[in-house]
Amino acid sequence: MSLQLNRSEFGNPQNRGNVLSRQEAHILFYEWVKNERLQLHMKQVAHLMKCWAAEKEGLDETEQWKWEMAGLLHDADWDQWPEHHCKKIIEELESRNIDPEIIHAIASHGPNHFGVEPLTRMDQMLYAFDELSGLIHAYSLMRPEGYAGMELKGVKKRFREKSFAAGVNREEVLDAMSRAQLELDTIIQFIMERQAEVK
Ligand SMILES: [Fe+2]
Ligand SMILES: [Fe+2]
């Protein structure tokens, strides 16, 4: 099964600045995604994207919502149409005249799978957070205290243990770090501190 998108242009430049309202995004989210684990993953990534946009990139609330929206909807079609991931959500957002920046971020969240290079900061950070967020959440689930008291060295130990959260491709995570020009430790620390807030 190939998920290659075979194109590099997404959306229409005339739609710059167009976003879904929070309510519209949530309606789409709950209509398309029924799996609660996947819902949580998408909410976690959305939260990380928003926090990063605000705290590290110093972006205003309008921009923060674009980052958050990309995170919230990046796997929207995975639950019901995995063989069309992420083609279906891209086409949906294009038909709704959404900002191409958001659509490009979603299209490039797995360059090895979709064949689209992460170019913007939004693209790079979505790719950087996606898999690592899942690994850290899996770690929280096996700890009696969850996220409380979690330490960087514990996460790194799990990261090196290839059998743990085996679906998380370590090479892709490292590729994402180098594209974003960030240290693995920095991103792990950021995720550990913010992700516990998402329920
Ligand atoms: Fe995905
Ligand atoms: Fe994801």
Report on this model:
This protein has 199 residues and is an all-alpha fold. The chain has one domain: Hypothetical protein af1432. Helices cover 60% and strands 0% of the residues. It contains ten helices and no strands. Helix 2 runs antiparallel to helix 3, helix 3 runs parallel beside helix 5 and helix 7 (121-142) crosses helix 10 (184-195). The chain is globular. The model has no long low-confidence stretch (mean pLDDT 97). The chain binds fe (ii) ion (2 copies). One fe (ii) ion binds next to loops.
According to DSSP, the number of beta strands is: 0
Average pLDDT taken over every residue = 97
Order of helices and strands: HHHHHHHHHH
Structural class: mainly alpha
The main sheet comes to: none
Shape verdict: globular
What is the CA-based Rg, rounded?
Answer: 16 Å
- How many separate helices? 10
Q: Architecture in CATH?
A: Orthogonal Bundle
CATH topology: Hypothetical protein af1432
Helix content: 55-70%
Query: How far apart are the termini?
Result: 33 Å
Task: Write down the CATH class.
Answer: Mainly Alpha
Strand content: under 5%
Q: Flag low-confidence runs.
A: none
Bound molecules: fe (ii) ion
